[in-house]
């Protein structure tokens, strides 16, 4: 495993981030394909033993169950200081007023709830899961700053939004003397490269670490185009992300390169992403040991310029999705 700094910070993270959305009780929340704790634990342990130290979860994953499983795994399989623990806030956690969003009430209350579920006294990276148009960004930023100053959060991150929104947030935080976002968790992979237009150049300019979600396009890049899985058949959100006719050609190019290299397709798709200078660590979800093996092996796979060109050539502009 390799380790790099998260953007311009001094925080060291593994080049692969383990996405904890794959782990959670299937009957809680909106991910019936997630693995219950008894199936999740061996995979989490294997990841930690392979040197993966960066774990990303969220309060909404399996209605809090993912955070609970993550916290218990950290206590049993490693030590708190040996992992970089990230979680997120924004999604609705309860019905009625103030049950979600990024108001000061929601940010600070959900932080406390996440800490209880994780059974830790702080998180290393606290991220806003999406932009909240109903709350002034100044209110959100001030609440996040107070969370850092309280010692319960070490760094702040953001996830999918328009580049102008992220630029505004970075500017306001600097202007007011608040802690700024240090990372961007955005939708970026071979099938959707729209972030290359504005968000990624902004992150490079501002020293922001990029930790893409869905780096394998919900598995689309790892299997034949018409093949389905239990997750793809039950993932309503993922079903809206990849249905462009041009995407099939890209999947076929990944298959060609993987066959020539004699490696699984997942390694090629991840190696392409890891070669992008602005990318710190893709967030990889795993439900089988082989998924983890491929993610770790991808760190050492170096694609040639010709292979990169072949993989990228079929791409056509897409509508922005995932916000």
Automatic annotation (TrEMBL):
It comes from Geodermatophilus arenarius. The keyword Oxidoreductase applies. It holds the Pfam family Aldo_ket_red. Residues 15-313 form the NADP-dependent oxidoreductase domain. Its EC number is 1.1.1.-. InterPro entries: AKR, AKR_Detox_Biosynth, NAD(P)_OxRdtase_dom_sf, NADP_OxRdtase_dom. GO terms for molecular function: oxidoreductase activity. Keywords: Oxidoreductase. This is Aldo/keto reductase.
